[in-house]
Structure formats: C-alpha cells, structure tokens
Structure prediction request, 188 residues.
Amino acid sequence: MTQEQVVLNTDKWIDNYADYMYNYAVVRVNNSDLAKDLVQDTFFAGLKSAKNFQGKSTERTWLISILKRKIIDYYRKINSKKGQAEVRMNFYDDGENEGNWLEERVPKSWDNQSEKTIENEELKSQLESCIDALPEKYAMVFRMKTIQEFETEEICKELDITASNLWVIIHRARTQLRKCMEDNWFNN
Prediction:
C-alpha cells in the first residue's frame, strides 16, 4: 500500500469509534470520567501521529492500540511513586463543594495535638497571670515549691520560715489559684 492510499477519516472518528472506545476503556478503568478522558487523549494522540498510520490495520484497531497504551500508561502512573502522589482524593461529593485533593497534598489527619498545644499555652498563660495576682510571698513560695521544685528545708532556710508556715502558705496560694482559674479559665 502506498502512502497516498492510506487516508485517515479523522472527521468521522467521534461518530464511528467514540462509543466503542469509551465502552472498551470504562470496562478496564471502572471510571466513567477517566474513560472519557482516555478516549479524548487517544483521539488527540491519533491526530498527532496520523502521519505514522501505515494502513496495516483498520482505523479502529489502530485507535484501540493507542487507547490500550493510554490505559497501560495510566496504571503505570498510578502505581509509580509520582503517580500515587497525583491520584486525586475526593473530599466532597456534593453540589458546589464538589472537589478533590491531589493525594500528596491531602491534609494529614488532624490529631488533637495542635489544639492541645494551643490550649496548653493559653492555660499556662492564665496560670501565670493567676500566680502573679497572688500576694508576693505566696507567689514566691508557690513557685519555689511547685514549679522550681526546691526542697522544703531549702525554702524555709532561704525565706526564714517554718515548715508548717510554708505549708499554710502553699495551701492558701493553691486556694487562691483555684478560685482565680475557676473565674478566668474554667467558667469562660
């Protein structure tokens, strides 16, 4: 066959082959939209390589062979590292919110760690404010004993107080802190 005798009828491809190719693709990829895309890609590739058509097969057979390669390329892509990263993940299936993420950009599941960190910072800030509101001696004793973890004897010697006095101060500081935290943290 000479090159002149081999003429592709590209204007008729959609009418003649689109349904057959769609059915061929949808069975293999099990996704209607993807099948349509693969058929469209096949027609485009066929147009680009029309000069390579030698007439050794029918147009339909030639287009199906291109479609087969497109399907194989699709599966290779989704099974490769890069391809897996590009697989789209649905995040909404309804109405105007419909959309998807590229898998590599899907947000990581949120554990409560970031929320806990923020809450802990806010709690720490509120506790510091309540400690600062204590009488100076109460705040000093409370910080030394509970935050800086000094020994009782060390605090007593440093501040020239008795152990029983230290425990009274700690008790009063805790009572005032509880009230402050209830008023400013827990009841908000």
The first helix runs from residue 13 to 29. Residues 88-95, 97-109 have pLDDT under 50 and may be disordered. Helices lie at 13-29, 32-48, 59-79, 81-86, 113-133, 136-147, 152-159, 163-186.
